[in-house]
Amino acid sequence: MKLSLAFKALGSLCLLLADGFPVSENLPPKIIGANHVKIKAHLGENLFLHCEAFANCEDTLIYWLVNNTFPEDLPSSGKIVESDESTLDEGAILLRSLLLKNVTSEDLKSSFTCVVINAAGMTQKKIMLTVRSDCNAGKNRKH
User: Fold this and answer.
1) Pick the residue with more confidence: 91 or 27?
2) Using CA atoms, how far apart are residues 27 and 121, in angstroms rounded to an integer?
3) How open is the CA angle 52-122-38, to the nearest 5 degrees?
4) What is the pTM of this model?
5) CB distance 51 to 115 below 8 Å
6) Is this entry keyworded Disulfide bond (predicted)?
7) Centroid of chain to Cα 21
8) Nearest 5°: CA angle at 32, between 101 and 131?
9) For the chain: N or C, fewer Cβ within 10 A?
């Protein structure tokens, strides 16, 4: 799904009701935590990237992009797998994860973006990976 199609699909007014009365309207979703994150990864190991957001509206979408492409559209689509969307607190919090199987140096050059969108707006969480080095690498230890 292209981003413009997502906007068209969510083009209706966003209005939450509690006991029949409006609680909030036109509130964009909000990422829980930092919007820009660097994560240290071990080459050759699996890595989960997580994204959580307050929906602030019904019909909120949450999805991942890898280098601005949907994970399922990547040439190596089986290597990076997006989880199903899940919710907490009766749908107020959305969660979605991305599994990177066998982290490679190519993954260190990639950008991973969690996108959360509703009729009132859009927010993103961008993740970059760095290599995690072993503290004892390159040191000769004497016993």
Assistant:
1) 27
2) 7
3) 50
4) 0.75
5) no
6) yes
7) 32
8) 35
9) C
Of 43, 55, 140, nearest to 100 by C-alpha is 43
By the 8 A CB rule, do 126 and 37 touch? yes
| Stronger pLDDT, 98 or 19, i.e. the higher one | 98
CATH fold of 3-14+24-131: Immunoglobulin-like (2.60.40)
Q: What six digits make up the tokens of 12?
A: 């209706």
**107 backbone dihedrals φ, ψ, rounded to 5°:** -60, -35
Type of residue at 4: S
* Separation of alpha carbons 75 and 54, rounded Å: 32
Torsion, CA 124, CA 75, CA 72, CA 103, rounded to 10: -60
Contact 61, 23 (CB under 8 A): no
Residue 19 is encoded by which pair of tokens? 């006991």
Nearest to residue 9, comparing CAs of 59, 66, 53?
Answer: 59
Show the tokens assigned to 118: 């509703």
